[in-house]
Amino acid sequence: MTGRRRVAGRLTLRARLALLVAAAVALAVAACATAGWYLTRNQLYRELDRRLGAMSGPPGPGGGVPPRMQRFERDLGAALADCRPGARPGTGTGQFPPGPAEITQVVDARGRACTLPGAGTLEVTGADAAVARGARERAVHDGRGVTAAGDHIDVRVLTRSLRTPGGEPFAVSFAISLKEAEGPLGNLALLLVAVTALGVVVSAGAGLMIARAALRPVDELTGAVEHVARTEDLGTRIPEEGTDEIARLSRSFNTMTAALAASRERQRQLIADAGHELRTPLTSLRTNIDLLLRAEASGRELPGDTRHRLLDSVKAQMRELSSLVGDLLELARPAEAEPVREPVALHEVVGRAVERARLRGPGLTVRASTEPWYVMGDAASLERAVVNLLDNAVKFSPPGGTVEVGLRDGGLTVRDHGPGIPGGDLPHVFERFWRSPSARSLPGSGLGLSIVARVVEECGGRVALEAAPGGGTLARVDLPGAPDPAG
Description:
Elements: H1 2-10, H2 13-56, H3 73-83, E1 103-108, E2 113-114, E3 121-122, H4 126-133, E4 138-146, E5 152-163, E6 169-177, H5 179-214, H6 216-231, H7 245-298, H8 304-332, E7 342-345, H9 346-360, E8 365-370, E9 374-377, H10 379-396, E10 402-408, E11 411-415, H11 448-458, E12 462-467, E13 473-478
Parallel strand pairs: 8-10
Antiparallel strand pairs: 1-2, 1-6, 3-4, 4-5, 5-6, 7-9, 10-11, 11-13, 12-13
Helix pairs in contact: 2-5, 7-8, 9-10, 10-11
């Protein structure tokens, strides 16, 4: 088995397909040749049996000697007399002409062969003995015999049941040499072997051509894959013609390369956007630290309030960097990874997020009205998403403004009374690193809402932003769940 696998592994797909076609055609030709040989053999044997039946002719009245053999009835009686105990063989007179039969032999009721003058001898089988006893009317079989000239031959034998004038049963066997059938069958066998061999050669050539034509699209696909592997050109496309398996494979390959190209573009864009977002806080952080170090190196002490402002700025930039790194790690998690799903009390998550929002906007009023609601998801991710929504509301609220939070029947709403979002910007608010022109001077990375959209989608919900009546922005989040943990 291992050796066959190694040989198969060294063969190309084209060679294997050609061999399979050749083997299938060879088996079909061999089966047809064998069936043809057996049909011809059966036809020849039927012809021999017909000739043997014609030799014996119909039996006489009462099962007696057939009319065409009655002229030789004396010889039949002499042969039967030879078989009786104490009789001297060969007492019959005359010469029994064999006619068309090679050998003719009489069999008595005891199953013994009774010699006819000049007619040769046959092996007596059990079927012949049964016919001689009268148990069967006739028997046809192959056998061996000796001609009157002493030649041993293979014969086809027909044995018929007859009766003497005294009612004693006996049988006469007629035999024809099988050379009349075996000669043509031998020649036919040689011819069929030659035809089969020719069929194998022709089928091997046809199989090779069929394999070459059938695998041409596979060669094109292989060339395209090798080109992509060599050049990393994901823009390569294969013609998608037809509806067969090769066309489906080509479409799948094109879909795969398009998805890889899109993934590479998203990766490149993520790196570029992350670099852009990191540059500003890092530049500000480096400037502030350079001022502190320069003041310490020169020995000139900075005023207390200036030093305090610099340290506060450093702390704010570090917090912004930490938030940006956390957002990037959240977005870097593979989308196909199995998210954590466990029962989460959404109203408690919203309560904790509201408390954090009040700390971040001390001059704002954050009103919350929540009802119990349980969802399947990750508590930390859900809290991060709600905090991001509240951070946006706090960021865009005017001084002394109000942020309204509500949770009813799985619908979470967060409304601020800020300037609102222009209608043309609404389709882009959930894109990574996207920030409206009016918000680019404010702190933030542009990743918060994209994280919200991802978390809500993992929980099977929906999120949308819209203009609130009377001004401001209204965020709506719908999450499937139930008002009690059991549900």
